[in-house]
Automatic annotation (TrEMBL):
This is SDR family oxidoreductase. Residues 5-183 form the Ketoreductase domain. SUPFAM superfamilies: NAD(P)-binding Rossmann-fold domains. Keywords: Oxidoreductase. Gene3D superfamilies: NAD(P)-binding Rossmann-like Domain (3.40.50.720).
Length: 242
């Protein structure tokens, strides 16, 4: 990607989004960090980056007007987006009997519809080269009480293949992590238990930096022959779920 172009990372203040943003900045990329709520987290990203390498934009991706506003802001700032990483996601573990349809739609709005709308809008600028969407091994291996999340990630997989076919030569791929190490997993003893990690062939949760390395690879020229692929980054966890 040229020195004049940027990579847009949605959900840049989340665990994965922040890790990807920091990694791309260390690799010398210019990044646009989109976030929904945490202004303090966005400021932390900004303070750790060179002023000319990172810009932040607040956008509510549950709302079509918020998505349109993000695109309008990119145009207003004359930002050339050559890469797009959709790391924005709502994680919901409500059981079906308790999950209201409004919440189900909200999860799909962020995890799927926003990914589609942003990729579609950016592709019309004729600058976009590569898209990486965030899926999950949960798209194939559903757990109890995660119907909205797993449904959304199954849709992300289908969206990846469809966009790859229709938007070529723009490359569209997805990464499907297992359980990513975060403050949330540290609060849940089960994720650090030997019983849980013994189910993972490589013996540990997914390191956000290792996940970021795969995202960066898929964005770059080294992956120039890859499109429509769902790349599992799970330490082999899904092998034990077959």
């Amino acid at each position: 990607m040229s020195d004049e172009s940027h990579i847009l990372v949605s959900g840049a203040t989340g665990v994965v989004g922040a890790a990807v943003t920091r990694y791309l900045l260390r690799r010398g990329h210019r990044v646009i960090a989109s976030y929904a709520h945490s202004a303090s987290a966005a400021e932390a990203l900004q303070s750790a980056a060179r002023p000319d390498c990172l810009e932040t934009i607040r956008a509510d991706l549950t709302d079509p007007h918020g998505i349109a506003g993000l695109i309008d802001e990119l145009d207003a700032r004359e930002i050339r987006v050559a890469g797009f990483v959709h790391a924005a996601a709502l994680v919901d573990h409500t059981a079906t009997v308790d999950l209201e349809p409004v919440r189900f739609a909200e999860v799909l709005a962020v995890n799927v519809t926003a990914a589609y709308a942003l990729a579609r809008a950016l592709s019309t600028r004729r600058i976009l080269k590569s898209v990486v969407l965030l899926s999950s091994i949960g798209s194939e291996f559903a757990g109890l009480g995660s119907v909205a999340y797993t449904t959304s990630k199954g849709a992300v997989d289908a969206l990846t293949r469809s966009l790859a076919s229709e938007l070529a030569p723009v490359r569209v791929n997805a990464v499907a992590p297992g359980v990513v190490r975060s403050h949330r997993t540290s609060e849940e003893p089960i994720f650090s238990s030997s019983e849980f990690t013994s189910r993972i062939p490589l013996g540990d949760l997914v390191d956000p930096i290792a996940l970021s390395e795969v995202v960066a690879f898929l964005l770059g020229p080294e992956a120039r022959a890859m499109t429509g692929q769902i790349v599992r980054v799970d330490g082999g966890h899904s092998l034990r779920l077959l």
